[in-house]
Amino acid sequence: MPVLWIIVTILVLAAVGYVLGRQRAMSAAGGDARVLHSLPNYYGMNVVLFTVAPALLIMVTWLLVQPGLIESRVASLIPESAISEDSSLSLVMSDVRRIAEGLDTAVAEGVMTETEAGAIRAETTDVRKVLGEVGVALGSDVEATTLQASQSFRAMSASLGSWMTVVVLGIAALGLGISVLRTHKDFRARNTVEAAILALLIIASSIAILTTLGIILSMLFETRNFFTQYQWTDFFFGTTWNPSFSGRGGASELGIIPLLWGTLYISFIALLVAVPIGLFAAIYMSEYAGPKIRSVAKPLIEILAGIPTIVYGLFALITVGPLLRDYFAAPMGLGQSSSSVMTAGIVMGIMLIPFVSSLSDDIINAVPQAMRDGSLGLGATQSETIKQVVIPAALPGIVGAILLAASRAIGETMIVVLGAGAAAKLDLNPFEAMTTVTVKIVSQLTGDTDFASPETLVAFALGLTLFVITLGLNVLALYIVRKYREQYE
Amino acid sequence: MSDASLGGAAPSQPKKSSLLVQDARTKKRNAAESRFKVYGMAAVVTGILALVLLLASILSNGLSAFQQTYVTLEIELLEEKLDKSGERDLSVMRKVSTFGYAPLIATAMGKKLEENGIAIEGLSTKQAGAIISKDAPAQLRNFVLANSEVVGTTQTFELLANGRIDGYLKGRVTMETAALDKNVSPEQLLLTDALQELGTLEKRFNWSFFTNPDASGQRPEAAGLGVAILGSLYMMLVVLCLALPIGVAASIYLEEFAPKNRLTDLIEVNISNLAAVPSIVFGILGLAIFINFAGLPQSAPIVGGLVLTLMTLPTIIISTRASLKSVPPSIRDAALGIGASKMQSVFHHVLPLAAPGILTGTIIGLAQALGETAPLLLIGMVAFVREYPAGPPEGFFDPASALPVQVYNWTQRSDPAFVERASGAIIVLLVFLLIMNAIAILLRRRFERRW
Asked: What is the ipTM of this complex?
């Protein structure tokens, strides 16, 4: 039975259980809800809970475990000889899966019967042709062992699948039976239901931890694989980035320094644009602007924060890049490339303006009015008050905001993919195309990837480096901002 | 600086300075003051100017994508070319590829020119036929296969014009550039002018931009956003179905039930950090966990939806917690006071009151997810997808594209007509975002309660 139908069946069972549980409670109370410990609905909910939760839990675990189990069983069926020199076990296994899918399609379209699909032999039938007719194209002719493996793959998934249906539905029915029988008028249904809901809430909130764990573990695991194939000193201290793709031969040079340089250079220019503009805008809006200007200008600037980064990327690609090349770089003889550090930096700076301005705005507003009044009362002008009282008081918060903006800049992807170029270079000329860590993650992981080669795995090491850098900046920034908030609260 | 002695009796030592006459230092300070104010104003204006420039650039490049050039031709669907047997057997007719249909179009174009006496020096019939899109034979073939009875008759078709001809009408291609371009010749442009005068060739609203799937790099005129819009829609459904319940549940726990302990602290730190993790890292997570480990298919909306869910969760949790916090404690106290359990007070009273805020936060989170590109690149959504995904739920596992990824895809192609398409797609994306944000603002205006 397909998973969807199992779920539907469980839900139907649950609905029946709800009615049964509620009725049983009511009849136990002699039709008077006041005698019950909990409201009648809770008795129904209790039955639903016991029907659905264990069954679904078992089903999810089963679905997670089953593919791995079948895989290892089938893999052991494939003899060493079937794995030729230029392929690997995983390639053969993907063939097996593909043939199994093809046989499924063939059966579904009525080209062959279920028994035929289990009985055909590569020696007698041209499986490739048969499957080709139902729209499953295979790269090469099917070997006898592969076909047998895929047939046992199918047989195993089918038998395990029917077992799962039986077990899951059995558990659902069992849960329903037990919980209905347990229902009587003094049963504390509400407490059970509420405890279950609380458990759900806790599970939901721990997803944040699971996500972080998932990020760290997946990257650590692949990074370790990478470092078994590539020296970590060459990665962290190498000054050339020159991956060679399989087939061209030769060893790749995968030094992170040029990528880091590009990342930091672009982020520096972005901050050079964003910090003064954002900070002055925040100061103007919190200290000078009347409510009218503020109510117009603040949302307008914040629109910039809501625009997706791909839009900025396109802006860099089709407008800012050519503009900078034609009016600055080319006349000054600094370069002919429209994608450059400057292009990406300026556009990223624009993206960061609202980020800096709204954070600084909040922080400046949090400075107590009494401090301003004191300074103004002593005869300082407004700008003197801002420069000598407000800003120093808000400085930790502003530094925090800038750090957050920096971490955003370092992790930004689409603007640099479209605006900065792909050449890894160690150069000072801002009109030269350079590349960043994020660009290289994208280019190493898109398209056909082979998860055994260092050229692909390096993306995980780059990702981990990026994650560690931004995490460090974020933690520092959040710490500073939090510390600062406490100061005035 | 105030001077209390002013206006009183003349002091023994008369002061040199006066409030009416500014001394050099005051002048300097006032100048600094107004300079500072101007800097602030300049910063605000720069920010707004950047926004205007950004929008203007996208609009000026992209608005023309909503118009497309069509050529109306009467095409004779010759029986001996399309169905030699004359039996209208579809399996036989399928064997005629688009190459069999292309000559029909060229012939029809030649006939049209002859009838109207258009003769352009140096223009071959083949070139004249080439002002029609390379996609047109496929269009013709699909039509014939769907209505086999039309074979042998003459039908009127509206065919897409070639991308360069379309560019000529939109001012992207000129006579000078055509002379240098091997894909189009000035004679073809002259023909275009002539056909336009006849009314055979015209520019009109481009509905197929919203419905067509992507097209190959050779035929930008046929490329549309159909698959991308559908893919984005599927992903948003996944995000909505997962992120909203999980986010609300997590916030309820953290805001209403969580004791102050290590675990709670850990969760809170995690959430605030996840909100600032670069989006591409989520892409790596999706690739490693959902595709390599769990074996979900590449380019599928379900994987994209899952990744975007994880990205959106912090946003939704943060805004939900804020709106839960804004419900005054008196509501909870009153509910508890008349005998509700803690759970009942939260689910029956606090949550409904916080609902508008939660919805607003969710919509804003969804808008963020809709525009996200980088993680989707890593999970294979850049693939060239021409088939529409099936209806849900199987469609969630079919390959699809997404709006922002489609934009990225088009920027990577060489034909300049794709820049127009990409900007047009951005406009569509921005309109969706605008609508979502407008709904969020309306909800907030309409239902927000100040306690």
From this structure: 0.88
